[in-house]
Write a structure and sequence with these properties.
The complex is a heterodimer of chains A (273) and B (276). Chain A has 273 residues and is mainly alpha-helical. Helix content of chain A is 71%, strand content 0%. Chain A has twelve helices and no strands. In chain A, helix 6 runs antiparallel to helix 7 and helix 10 (207-219) packs antiparallel against helix 11 (223-233). In chain B, 79% of the residues lie in helices and 0% in strands. Chain B has one domain (2-272). Chain B has helices at residues 2-24, 26-40, 42-45, 54-87, 90-96, 101-141, 152-179, 183-209, 213-225, 246-271. Chain B is globular and about 70 Å long. Chain B is mostly helical and 276 residues long. The chains are: A mainly alpha (273), B mainly alpha (276). At the A-B interface, helix 2, helix 3, helix 4 and helix 6 of A face helix 4, helix 8, helix 9 and helix 10 of B.
Amino acid sequence: MSDAAESSGMFPFLRDRLVTVAVTLVVLTATGFVLRPLEATAWAEVRARGAGIDAAGLEGAVGQGVVAGLLGGFRALAADFLWLKANSNWEEMDLPATQTTIRAVTAIDPRQLYFWVNGARMIAYDMPVWRIERAGGPDAVPASVQARIDEEQARVALGLLADAQRFHADNPTLVIEVANIHLRRLGDVATAAQLYREAAELPGAPFYAARIHAELLRNLGRRHEALEWLVGVHPTLPRDVPEAMSGIVLARIHELEDELGVSAESRYNPVAR
Amino acid sequence: MSAISSSLSRVGTIAGNTFLEAVRQRFFIALLVLAAGLLVSTEFLREFNFGASEVRFIADIGFGALVLFGSVLTITVTAQLFFAEIESRTALTLLAKPVRRGEFIVGKFLGVWLVVLIFCVIVTLLVCAVLATREAEILAADPDAGDALVSYGAVIAAAAVQWVKFGVLGAITLLLGSYSNTNLFSVATALLVLVICHLQYLARDVWERGGSAVAQVGAGLLGLLFPNFQLFNLADLVTAGEPFGAALIVRVTLYGLAYIAVFLALASFSFRRREI
């Protein structure tokens, strides 16, 4: 049998094939090792700029026909279609599906703030309402349980926004979104005030961030701090930009001075400065 | 010296014939028309755009068309032309002459790579035209939007890097073709390898994050055996604010060229004793 096989050329054929496979595997492994430093440097830069997908978020994309699209590019388009799916799930108040598709969308295209911010809003503001409705409605569910649900959903949303900040470091929009969740869902005014300040100090921050920081300090009873902050901010506000609301900030400063009983000679006077 | 020049001449002849055969194929034209059609359709697909800026969305679709149809073109044409030579017995005639098998492989590769270059140039010009048209409209409507929304140099560099990736893919297809017996098997396996190469970085993520020993070994091997195709996706960075530097393009290109050389050498090795 073996003589027949050998004489028919089967063994040399198999041996050749095995040698080819073995050489291929060894050479490719060695190439992988040799090129790893070159690849690692380039990959670190490419990935830091948002290329590639986050494996953790991929679960939601499997079965959506999206992975095939990703292989051939079409990242923005794939994310857009999946975002439609997320909205469809949201309309049906399907919490797990909505949450999963939001994760998948942000994993596929983490470059777009729109998905992160709106996804976090769905999770933090809409989902607690669904859960409370499902548990019998706000009248039937005890306040402590409602607070727990609010906190749980807020934590999920904050987790999503923390991931967003890995891709969009120092983005004031994300910091403001985090601040709002602390303020509105967790009732943590002090943290929200601190975050609004951080947002206001970032390049490209909207003018209202500084005003809200002062307002929250005022609510916390830290009026001296609020006054000091606004006096520092006011000279930086352009007078010809309506959104800067320079006049309103000045009025707030005077209100605080009145409340704190600041003497006439110590009052803020922008003209004198 | 004359041996090298005559070898190059033989490679050039095979490459030239392969190129002519490839561009004559209807498949090439069909893919080009499909890619162009998809690009023109961005005007309508914009309605589905939620998050991205318009130019980024158009660039994404354009490069999507380039990558998808370019990959299909590279794999299919490489396998088809390689097996056509074997099935029609012209390879037998060719290799009976003083043509080395390695020269045959390199000639085939260069011919296909040249066809893919033509495809890349045409699609990239179309992407630039669509981007320029929309950019002009946006800037006319909103003069505060800035001087330029797109770096066309970056678009061309990203497309060039994709062409290098298609080269790696073509060389992989030749390696598979030199080992397998049928065109269909080579195409199917090359498509599978394309998927693995695009997603191998996910395996490496698993490797780096830890997990079971078996998973780590498997993921580590995958990361070593297959080139990282996601590295060539510089298109994602074309409209990402700061343009990518020349150093990155050089690194990625060198990475691709090194893999092309290795896969071609392996294909020649695998083809050396194949019965034709």
